[in-house]
Amino acid sequence: MKVMVVAGSAREKSNTRGLAQTIKNHLEQLGVDVLFFDAGIHELPIYKGGTEAEHPNVMQLTRYAEEADAFFVCTPEYHSGMSGALKNAFDFLNGDYFRGKPAMIAAVGGGGKGGINALNDLRTVLRALYAFVLPEQYITDAVCYNDRCELVHEDSRTKLNDMAQQLVRVTEALGK
Ligand SMILES: Cc1cc2nc3c(=O)[nH]c(=O)nc-3n(C[C@H](O)[C@H](O)[C@H](O)COP(=O)(O)O)c2cc1C
User: Fold this and answer.
1) For residues 47-56, b (16+ Cβ closer than 10 Å) or e, as one string?
2) Residue 176, pLDDT score
3) Does the C-beta of 102 come closer than 6 Å to ligand 1?
4) Pocket probe mutation, ligand 1, options 6, 74, 78, max atoms within 8 Å of Cβ
5) Quick one: pLDDT band at residue 111, thresholds 50, 70, 90?
6) Which CATH superfamily is domain 2-173 in?
7) Looking at the chain, which runs of residues are DSSP E strands?
8) Would you say 160 and 26 are in contact if contact means Cβ atoms under 8 Å apart?
9) 22-74 residue pLDDT tens
10) Could you tell me the strand order of the sheet in which 33-38 lies?
């Protein structure tokens, strides 16, 4: 089984990357092949509907999305929405990549302000892409991370492990 894990922050020091890395480790312990796509490392051009789609990072994005049996998407909350970098990545994709595939979502908020708006935003966009977005979701606050952006909050790590297991079970139930 292949799961595409997406880290949706383009920041150099990113808590979302720490969140996605934790999920990657959990999934790998379950024997899953993880396709790790990071909006900061695999920087994409702005979607213009033209030749920028031939950029090697866009090709990697579309190849991963095509190969994936399921998705675990992580976003930061920026101004009550998902990051622009993540939305730009989705604009290179379409329903053919997501239709009938399960997707789990999680967010990082800051200063106790939230994360729920980013998740609602992300859920709406994934639904528009025909992903089968699971009802479970999770938010971590920036205080759950150390200064190397590693997720050190034990309850969050346990919950994300449960969610990784749930994603694997649903994906298997769908015949993958
Ligand atoms: C431009 C910007 C806007 C933000 N807006 C919000 C917000 O609306 N709600 C919130 O809970 N946190 C907000 N934050 C805090 C981030 O969610 C938090 O710093 C998070 O760790 C960022 O993830 P990253 O390090 O992966 O980029 C904002 C941070 C930035 C940089």
Assistant:
1) beeeeeeeee
2) 85
3) no
4) 78
5) confident
6) Flavodoxin domain (3.40.50.360)
7) 2-7, 33-38, 70-76, 102-109, 132-141
8) yes
9) 999 999 999 999 999 999 999 999 999 999 999 999 999 999 999 999 999 99
10) 33-38, 2-7, 70-76, 102-109, 132-141
